[in-house]
Amino acid sequence: MAGIYLAAGHNRRTGISKAARQQLQEFPGSRASLRELECCILEPLVVVVRANDTLEWLPPAVNKQSARRTETCLTAHLGLSFSLRCGLNAVLPLQPDAVIVAQADQPGVTSLHVNRLINTFRQSPELDYVADAGCGLLMPPALFSKAMFNALQGLNEDEGMAGLLRSPDYKGVVLEAKAEV
Q1: In this model, does residue 86 exceed pLDDT 90?
Q2: Dihedrals φ, ψ of 37, to 5°?
Q3: Mean pLDDT across the chain
Q4: What's the whole-model pTM score?
């Protein structure tokens, strides 16, 4: 099970990366979410960043054996699909059965949350995806099986992942938000 943490987003209004904006606002959500992902069994956990990212926001690895690594996306300015493609290209040589895709601007991600996605997939490996619904909307992070890797590679727009999750071509489960204690 691999992980892709999309931290190369760019806010067109302010001109700074989403992760840097969160850091400037003293909001540690992206750091906390990354730490939570590191507590899951994701190998590797690829953090996709922009070419000009100073990585100052990036916390130290949780432990020395961490499978976390950064991947610079030279085409991140073209949209989320390009960052996703960069992350997929980084994990595909390891031939994972599935990948967890999370976004740096998605606060509140917990290891319990991600492990729930993973466990649901392990119980039903015929699924193409496992996603969450928060307030009735599909929300990252989401798990995509290897059967969807080509479709993910072919996305050309920022909202394409949600379109794949709604497509009748793929079989998946959308989990309702669950209170975590």
Answers
A1: yes
A2: -60, -35
A3: 83
A4: 0.86
Which tens digits make up the pLDDT trace of 144-176?
A: 999 999 999 998 865 578 888 888 999 999 987
Sort 164 into a burial class: Cβ within 10 Å, 0-12 / 13-18 / 19+: buried
Q: Are 34 and 59 in contact (CB under 8 A)?
A: yes
Residue 43 CA to residue 175 CA, distance in Å, equals 23
